[in-house]
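Quick start: what a row looks like.
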Amino acid sequence: MATATTAEYHSRDFDWEELRDEVENDPSLLYHLTPSAPSLPPCNADAWRSFHRRHSSGKFFKERRYLLEEFPELRSSDGFAKVLEVGCGNGSTVLPILRAKKNMVIYACDCSAEVVERAKEIIFSTIGVSSEQRFHPFLLDFSVNKFPEWLFCSSCQNSPSRNQSSSSADAEEEMMMLNDTKAQCCIGGVDFVTLIFTLSAVPLQNMPFVLAECHSTLKPGCLLLFRDYGLYDMTMLRFPVEQKVGYREYMRLEGTLSYFFSLDIVRDLFVGAGFIELELEYCCVTSMNRKNGKKMQRVWVHGKFAKPS
């Protein structure tokens, strides 16, 4: 039975189909439904640095305690395991894994040097969490640059896509890698990739590249764990028409992107990258805004995907 802390993450408070019908029959929301050509400039690390600078306070940090409930594979894995957290932010996904599993090592990347340093401060200062040898953050704009070679399993390192010459941007990113990962030798691939509210921040046309890189870092038979914004989430419906920059794609005022996924799009992206679908569903949760008493209908996409063995 779910505890009070985790209950809201396991409940299905409303039917997504009913929400879809409500949205699609509301004339004021029609602009969300119409396809439009992309009109956005590239979303870069500067925009995310600005975002994290604005939300750098401890109040913004919320440890994702539900993670091990929604993805029990992280908790039940036997023996030593390696996790790659893509888009680690301030460490809200990393911390519950480190806290619960003392035999896991986490490699975590983000495109902002400031937020990587902030994640290190939070993780290393958390009482009761042994992290000095288990948390390895590094700087990388994964939306346009390849993962470092030491992450990959040996067979993937020899694939044609890995042997292509690096661009100048790739070389620059490698030079900017943090000191605690520069000396890493090949770790032989990872057992889990976590992609939690990260892919939606990548331009749609770059998503296949990111997923292909994630696929290559996984050992055969291992898992990618996915959660992100779903179609008709409250946040999507609050965007004004002038912030729409593509079909189901929006830009916040500081320049960061937010895409809202349907199950079909997620399935096509992941299967196209070579993954096997294990679980894929909408998670629909109703919560209340304590300040104004308004009901908030949140929609997330929950997925588990495996690399074929």
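That is the whole record. The beta strands are 81-86, 104-110, 135-139, 190-196, 218-229, 244-246, 249-251, 257-259, 276-288, 295-306. The radius of gyration is 19 Å.
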